[in-house]
Amino acid sequence: MTSNDTLDDVTTEYSEREAVAVFSSEAALHAAVDALLQLGLEEKDMSVLGAHGAFSLKPLSELEDSGDSERGAYVPADDRAEGMAALVGSPALVAGLCAALVAGTGGAALIPAIAITAGSTAAGGVVGLVLARVFGRKHAAFIARQIGDGGLLLWVHAPDAARDAEIGEILTSKGGRDVHFHTVSRQWTLHGPQPDPLLRA
Prior knowledge:
Blueprint: E1 10-23, H1 26-39, E2 46-49, H2 60-64, E3 71-73, H3 77-103, H4 110-148, E4 152-157, H5 164-173, E5 177-190
Antiparallel strand pairs: 1-4, 1-5, 2-3, 2-4
């Protein structure tokens, strides 16, 4: 194969069986996922409506059973809280470490370094707090918009029909509505390499 040759994209179609449920609150959705995890499922088996999918012109009933609905990975509330904490603390940590390096030069640098650490840590914490609030508001608005559009969608990978009753019971008992199972068709594409134009003869 020469540098001018290209490989075509290879698209594979496959089917996936899953459970679907709609929730009226984020707390109910989290409770359902927690129960499913106790049942032995994994977080990677769960997906929710993606950021842009929430503003689709399709009605909720179509999004539920559409294989091409934009989806996002389920993120536990605890993980999101840890992410917010990291946003708040990381700038302060970086500032503090930098100041500590300055202090490591010893002697006269120590007193200014202490002042730098205190000031930078405070400033960094404020920046992180602002970022956390911004992302927190965006998430809250995202959730509110979905609920206003009809509810929060949860898809659960369910290849084993023998577990349908257990999964369905959990989704229903935790407040899920329109609980059902379906099989959707999806496509997975392997993109062929693009030749470097500088290598062309």
